[in-house]
C-alpha cells in the first residue's frame, strides 16, 4: 500500500513538472488515434493494411521521446499510463453517448437514416476487443519505445546534439511502432477480422515505416522543445523529489 501511495505521489509530481501543453497534446493524440483507427486506408495491394490512426500516432511517440530524454523512461511510461487511463475514461463517455437516443446530423440521408445512425453510434461507442487490443498494444509499445530510447542514449557518445537525439528517436520509434502495430493486429485483426499472419506483419512493418517518417519530419521541433526545457530547467521539482526519495 505504501508503494502505491509513493507511486501515485511520484506521478502527481511528474504531471506538475511536464509542461501542460505537451501532456495535453500527448493525451489528445492517444484519444484521437483510437478514434481515427476506425477508418482504414485504401491501398493498392491486398496484403497491405493501414488505418487513419497513423495521422496522429507519430505525435504520441514524439511526446514520449521528448519526455524520455528529459525525465527518463520510467517517467515517460508513467505519463503513457496516465494517457491510457484518460483514454479509457473518454471511451466510456463515448460509449454512453452512443447509447443516448437521438440522431446524428450526418445520418439525414433519405431512406438510410437508421443504418447510418447505427453505424455512427457503433463507431463512436466502439467495441470491447478493439479497445482492449489498442490499450494493450499502446502500453507494450510505450514501454518498448521509452526504454529502447533510454538504452540508446546510454551508449551514445554525445547526448546533447540533434544527431544523437534523432538516432535514438528514430530507432526507438520504429521498434515501438512495429510492436504497437503487430500487437494490435495479432490481438484484434487476426482474431476477429480474419487477417493472415502475413497481413499482420506487413501491416506492422508498413505502419512502422510511415510513422517513423513522420517522426523524422517532426523530430527537429521536438529537439528544440527539449532544448527549451533544459534551458529553463523544466521539471526541477520532479528531479529534486526523485533525488530526495532515492536517499
Strand content: under 5%
Report the span from N to C terminus.
Answer: 20 Å
Mean pLDDT: 90
Question: Sheet with the most strands?
Answer: 2 strands, antiparallel
Query: Radius of gyration over alpha carbons?
Result: 20 Å
Q: Could you estimate the helical fraction of the residues in percent?
A: over 70%
Structural class: mainly alpha
Low-confidence stretches: none
Task: Give the number of domains.
Answer: 1
DSSP helical segment count: 9
Numbering strands along the chain, what is their spatial order in the largest sheet? 1-2
Compressed to H and E, one letter per element, the order equals HHEEHHHHHHH
**Shape descriptor:** globular
In total, the number of strands is 2
Give the topology, please.
Elements lengths: L1 H16 L2 H17 L3 E2 L8 E2 L2 H18 L1 H27 L13 H13 L2 H28 L6 H31 L4 H35 L4 H10 L2
Antiparallel strand pairs: 1-2
Can you walk through the features of this model?
The chain crosses the membrane at residues 12-37, 43-67, 79-97, 128-147. Keywords: Membrane, Transmembrane, Transmembrane helix. With 247 residues, the protein is mainly alpha-helical. It has one domain. It is 79% helix and 2% strand. The chain is built from nine helices and two strands; from the N terminus they run ααββααααααα. It has helices spanning 2-17, 20-36, 54-71, 73-99, 113-125, 128-155, 162-192, 197-231, 236-245, and strands at residues 40-41, 50-51. The protein has a two-stranded antiparallel sheet with strand order 1-2. A hairpin with an 8-residue loop joins strand 1 (40-41) and strand 2 (50-51). Helix 3 packs across helix 7 (162-192), helix 4 (73-99) packs antiparallel against helix 5 and helix 7 (162-192) packs antiparallel against helix 8 (197-231). The longest helix is centred in the last third of the chain and has 35 residues, at 197-231. It is globular. The two termini are 20 Å apart. The model has no long low-confidence stretch (mean pLDDT 90).
